[in-house]
Design a protein that fits this description.
Elements (H helix, E strand, L loop, with lengths): L1 H4 L2 H18 L11 E10 L2 E2 L4 E5 L5 E5 L5 E8 L1 E8 L7 H9 L43 E5 L2 E4 L2 E2 L1
Parallel strand pairs: 1-8, 1-9
Antiparallel strand pairs: 1-2, 1-5, 3-4, 3-6, 6-7
Length: about 170
């Protein structure tokens, strides 16, 4: 009945507007949920030794990824892992070849010269430099590629544990 009262030009505009709304609203809710994330914690071991540095990366469907650093005790915590089946990689960077840089890293963080203290400052001190491991545990390079690592994990919403043995 509404169409009979409208002139032909207005009828075409009304139909075009209705189709445009359908095209815009129809895909809503379809496709990957990029916001669906989980929390994954665990320990990374190479044989019986925990890794002392490195990165764990999860590769989810549709190109969604997340990564976490490995601490000197071999632990990692990923707060934004993509939900679903994920391929997993572990990467460890070797120490630099320069002997001066290696000696500096192994001796600990560089000390900055003492400056004048500000008596009006009441806040906490700045955080110290990140801890550098005394030893880097080497791993096979195959673990740094999602196609060759052989590691996978299904992430669910919420918190879960995934210990990685290389």
């Amino acid at each position: 009945m509404l169409f009979r009262r409208l002139p032909t030009a207005n009828r075409l505009l009304w139909v075009a507007g209705l189709l445009a709304c359908c095209v815009v609203l129809l895909p809503t809710g379809c496709g990957p949920d990029f916001k669906a994330r989980g929390v994954v914690k665990g320990k990374v071991m190479a044989g019986k030794k925990p890794l002392t540095t490195g990165t764990v990366m999860f590769y989810g469907k549709n190109g969604i990824t997340a990564s976490a650093s490995i601490d000197p005790e071999g632990n990692y915590e990923m707060n934004d892992a993509p939900v679903g089946e994920c391929k997993v990689t572990v990467t460890v960077q070797a120490l630099p070849a320069d002997p001066m840089v290696r000696a500096r890293l192994k001796s600990g963080a560089m000390k900055l010269p003492e400056g004048p203290k500000d008596p009006t400052k009441t806040g906490p001190d700045l955080p110290s430099a990140p801890r550098v491991p005394k030893e880097v545990v080497p791993i096979d390079i195959k673990y740094s590629n999602p196609e060759t690592s052989g590691l996978s994990f299904t992430v669910h919403k919420g918190e879960q544990t995934y210990n990685i043995d290389l």
